[in-house]
Design a protein that fits this description.
The complex is a heterodimer of chains A (174) and B (470).
Chain A lengths: L4 E7 L2 H13 L9 E5 L8 H4 L6 H28 L12 H28 L18 E7 L4 H10 L4 E4 L1
Antiparallel strand pairs in A: 1-3, 1-4, 2-3
Chain B lengths: L1 H15 L6 H13 L3 H27 L14 H25 L9 H15 L1 H5 L26 H34 L2 H11 L6 H34 L11 H27 L8 H32 L2 H12 L3 H13 L7 H5 L1 H28 L14 H24 L5 H20 L11
Classes of the chains: A alpha+beta (174), B mainly alpha (470).
Chain lengths: 174, 470
């Protein structure tokens, strides 16, 4: 199988990038459709998900299981410490493992673990940390929108033509 | 009618920030500001450094000769150090309020100021965390508060609110730092592309290879929302837990059910006053006139006023409950506050804290930055006094008359208190010099959404604009 080519077209705004995505999606490809397409932009633009394709985000699962782990760890920590204190400290009729104070510790650790799990979930979902792609322009962090596509050699000319037709300011290739 | 409503929406959105700022200009303004602040910046840094050095000297003296030098003794074991601790934890709250609460409610005006507010949260917590340590007689044993294995089988007592407090503050500091960093990742990538030298290395490492792909943004927005949803209850729980340090004891004046909301309202109040002070400093020293605008300051002042009213109401509830209960010990503390040796401070706190914020309702005051700065500092003084007035009169006037005793802040305590203000400001100013204090991508997003609404209004002024997704 021939090695795929990567291209990134820079546009001055989202509308032009949107038109280019629609054109690429609907163009008559004799071979397979465009392998992969990404939008690179200085701000999030959820409206473009309609055309580029909605992809699920699994972050909530990290958050949920992180929070749950925190709650369990919080209870175990407070309970284990209370249990070990039992051997050296007179309890005076109080329960060895007291529930109400444990709830406070569980609450705090639920949040602590939930927050860290969310962060790691974000890194996992966003594919970070990563090496910076060779097809990157600092202008996409300023005021331009990049459309990154991966194409086969057979698609190359047709895709490049479409990107140019939609007023790409520059087309970078790798 | 609809058209009128939408014009109102449009005007309201346009006034927060100028609509025609070029996106590349935003990057340039923010990044340039970090390189070359006004000279006032260095004057403030030098002043704060002097305060910090004075505090270190004062603390060295206390370390050498013991807590007695700070005049901490029974019945006044908790003096200004603990007042400082509560005060700084309180200041940290407004950052989370502005950032997380206003994000969840989709308030646009938070965007230019939330980064500095979050930084304020982190710096305030780093200041607050010092005080329980400074307050220790044997500071070298501070690690005993951690649940570490040891031969004597001594463990922190998780039944104690003090250990809840430690857990809550640790969680809050941890999460607020992560929240601050998380929100900065796209901006760090912008700076990575522009910076040189050590800054380039630092931002390259911290940006984690962010490029702004749709996948990254999708996960980023979702994650930000999740973190905001965690941070908001956490902030409220932290100050509730701080209030538990007092409310769980049976000291008159402390054993009050309304203490948690009272502490949270006080925290938000002092935090908002702190944000006003830092807003004015940042706007001037970093030349952020385009981003930290008057309409945003107006909204911040109105929010502070609203929170002040909640705080005043809770004050009324607290004292009215005690008055109608007529418990002799509780009444003794209230009388001590009203007519005792601390009365001038208590009255200044009550009257000043309730009525000074009325000044924030006047546009002339909101537009006069010198007056507004003085007012915000006065509000912070009032809120510091509030914390001290929770501590001193109650400890002075407990259940047993033979245990009564007054205490005034010692010189060491006052120098360390002033030093804490220097330390906090120094941390904050170091942060805003190294990291972008105005969120570039959020401002671009704000402008983009303004344009989005405006374009639709131009096309069909009688139709509602499409809701913009957060």
């Amino acid at each position: 199988m021939a090695k795929n080519l990567e291209m990134m077209a820079l546009y001055s705004d989202f509308e032009e990038a949107r038109e280019a995505i629609i054109a690429l999606k609907t163009m008559d490809m004799r071979s397979d459709a465009v392998e992969e397409m990404r939008l690179v932009s200085p701000v999030p633009h959820p409206e473009l998900e309609d055309v580029i394709g909605t992809k699920p985000v699994f972050l909530q699962r990290f958050t949920f299981f992180g929070g749950l782990t925190g709650a369990i760890c919080g209870f175990l920590l407070a309970a284990a410490v209370a249990q070990s204190m039992f051997t050296v400290q007179v309890q005076g009729g109080k329960p060895v493992i007291p529930i109400p104070p444990n709830l406070v510790i569980m609450y705090e650790l639920t949040i602590l673990f939930g927050v860290w799990a969310t962060f790691f979930g974000f890194l996992f979902g966003a594919g970070l940390p990563t090496r910076q792609s060779k097809l990157y322009s600092h202008t996409v962090a300023e005021d331009q929108v990049g459309l990154w596509v991966e194409v086969t050699a057979a698609q190359y000319e047709a895709v490049k033509k479409v990107l140019k037709e939609h007023r790409a300011l520059e087309i970078m290739e790798h | 009618m609809q058209g009128k409503f939408l014009r109102g929406v449009k005007n309201n959105m346009e006034e927060d920030i100028r609509k025609d700022i070029a996106w590349a200009q935003i990057n340039k303004d923010v990044l340039d500001s970090m390189e070359s602040p006004r000279k006032t910046y260095w004057v403030i840094v030098a002043s704060c450094a002097v305060l910090v050095v004075a505090a270190i000297i004062a603390y060295s003296f206390q370390y050498r000769y013991g807590l007695g030098e700070a005049k901490l003794n029974r019945p006044q074991m908790w003096g200004p150090y603990i007042a400082n601790f509560i005060f700084w934890v309180g200041v940290s709250h407004a950052g989370t309020l502005l950032s997380a609460a206003l994000f969840i409610t989709n308030s646009e005006w938070r965007r230019p100021i939330y980064r500095s507010a979050e930084a304020m949260t982190t710096c305030a917590l780093m200041t607050a965390g010092l005080f329980p340590i400074l307050h220790l007689g044997r500071v070298w044993d501070v690690y005993w508060t951690m649940p570490l294995w040891n031969q004597r089988e001594l463990w922190p007592n998780f039944r104690s609110p003090l250990i809840w407090d430690l857990t809550a503050i640790f969680t809050y500091l941890n999460c607020s730092m992560l929240f601050l960093y998380y929100g900065m990742i796209p901006d760090l990538a912008i700076y990575r592309d522009k910076a040189r030298g050590w800054r380039k290395k630092l931002y390259t490492a911290m940006a984690l290879g962010w490029t702004g792909t749709d996948r990254q943004w999708r996960n980023f927005r979702k994650g930000y929302l999740m973190l905001a949803c965690f941070l908001l209850p956490l902030a409220i729980s932290v100050h509730s837990v701080v209030s538990a340090d007092f409310a769980m004891s049976n000291v008159p004046g402390w054993h009050i059910t309304s203490f948690p909301p009272y502490f949270v309202a006080g925290a938000l109040y002092s935090g908002c006053a702190g944000i006003i002070s830092l807003f004015i400093i940042l706007r001037y020293t970093f030349r952020f006139e385009e981003y930290l605008t008057q309409p945003i300051l107006d909204k911040l002042c109105k929010l502070t006023f609203a929170i002040c009213m909640v705080w005043s109401y809770l004050n009324l509830v607290e004292y009215a409950s005690v008055f109608y209960g007529q418990d002799m010990y509780e009444m003794g503390v209230i009388k001590e506050k009203m007519y005792g040796v601390y009365a001038p401070f208590w009255w200044f706190m009550i009257v000043g804290g309730t009525f000074l914020p009325f000044g924030l309702l006047f546009p002339a005051i909101r537009k006069n930055y010198t007056v507004l700065m003085i007012l915000s500092l006065l509000l912070n003084l009032v809120m510091w006094l509030e914390r001290w007035m929770i501590l001193a009169p109650s400890l002075a006037h407990g259940h047993e008359p033979y245990g009564w005793g007054y205490k005034w802040p010692s010189a060491i305590e006052m120098i360390i208190t002033l030093g804490s203000f220097g330390w906090f400001t120094l941390l904050f100013l170091a942060f805003v010099k190294i990291f972008p204090s105005v969120s570039m991508y959020e401002i671009k997003e704000m402008l983009f959404e303004h344009r989005h609404v405006s374009d639709r209004l131009v096309r069909d002024p009688r139709s509602h604009p499409e809701p913009v997704k957060p």
